[in-house]
Amino acid sequence: MDGSYLHELLNFDLDRYLNPYIARSRVHAFPQPFRHFLGYRSKSHIEPPAVVKWPLTFISTLAGLCLVAGVFNYGSAIAALHPPVLIASFGASAILEYNTIRSPLAQPRNIIVGHALSAVVGVGVSKLFQLNPTFFANYSWVSAAVGCACASVVMSMTNTVHPPGGATAVLASAETTVVHLGWIFVPLIILASALMTTVACLFNNTLRQYPVCWWTPEDVGSKLGKEVQKDGKRDPNELERQVSETDSERTLRHAHSRSVGEADALGVHEVRILPNKMQLPSGLGITEGEMAVLQTLQYRLRMCNEGSA
């Protein structure tokens, strides 16, 4: 069996098959200030000092959680369902969305899809255990554990890992009010995730930059139709202009783990930095600081390419 095929088989990556059909980001084409509050920057962003980020983190966390709680408690249609006062898992999400905003786990795809999948899995497992009401009444904690375990695997398989999603799956079996909600819990989770992400875009982008990427920092759309100019001719530099600066800043998870695997499969034993790809051999021992330097070089390379367009 071919080595590269075996590597792909043993390291299944949904994005490898999905990304070619995902449309490329068009955030750069939005008018100001919309694109600014969607995370696009025309220049490299420099994070503010920690003493500035701390009060911003406090204010945005307070705003996000209060918004969700307010909608759940005072929105007539939702309040009639008697949801929890505040879904506990969103407290953990707030730490990621408003504090460690550059983490791969804090990006919109991970937050919204991760929570949604966890809710679906959690409710599904809970419903299965409830087929035996006596067992569920005495061992709902087993259902909660199974739901969390299954949600963790599903998030891993879909590249949507968001740790608070585990709590979402647990609540579907462990919290009485959530158990009574049943499948209604899923759209409530999606709504709360969307509200939290909206607040993150509004508050984080006042002084910081969020998100790093909306879907993935990897290239997308290779199987879709090519972009054309108004005269019908393809613009050869369209790809470079479509990928926002936030997408060009590779996160440690993507730039290191995935690229290392590709480099090993191809027998590459050298560092390769391209505008949209980075390959590193395993065993090189790249630290987070060194990775940041490589990402800066990749960013400058992208800027040079755009400048010569």
Which percent bin holds the helix content?
55-70%
Kindly report the spatial arrangement of strands forming the biggest sheet. Answer: 1-2
Q: In percent, how much strand structure appears in the residues?
A: under 5%
- Contiguous uncertain segments of 5+ residues: 227-266
Indicate how many domains the architecture comprises: 2
Q: Give the number of helices.
A: 15
Quote the average pLDDT: 83
**Main sheet summary:** 2 strands, antiparallel
Shape: globular
Give the SSE order as H and E letters.
HHHHHHHHHHHHHHEEH
C-alpha termini separation: 43 Å
* Rg, nearest Å: 22 Å
Summing up helix and strand content along with how strands pair, one would put the structural category as mainly alpha
Strand tally: 2
Region (Disordered): 226-256
Biased composition (Basic and acidic residues): 226-252
Transmembrane segments: 51-72, 78-98, 110-129, 181-203
Protein name: HPP transmembrane region domain-containing protein
Structure report:
The protein is mainly alpha-helical and 309 residues long. The protein has 2 domains: 3-45 and 211-307, no CATH class; 50-207, no CATH class. The chain is 59% helix and 2% strand. The chain is built from 15 helices and 2 strands. It has helices at residues 3-10, 14-18, 50-74, 76-79, 89-98, 108-129, 133-138, 140-157, 164-174, 176-181, 185-207, 238-242, 245-248, 252-265, 288-307, and strands at residues 272-274, 277-279. A two-stranded antiparallel sheet has the order 1-2. Helix 6 (108-129) runs antiparallel to helix 8. The longest helix is centred in the N-terminal third of the chain and has 25 residues, at 50-74. The model is unreliable at 227-266 (pLDDT under 50).
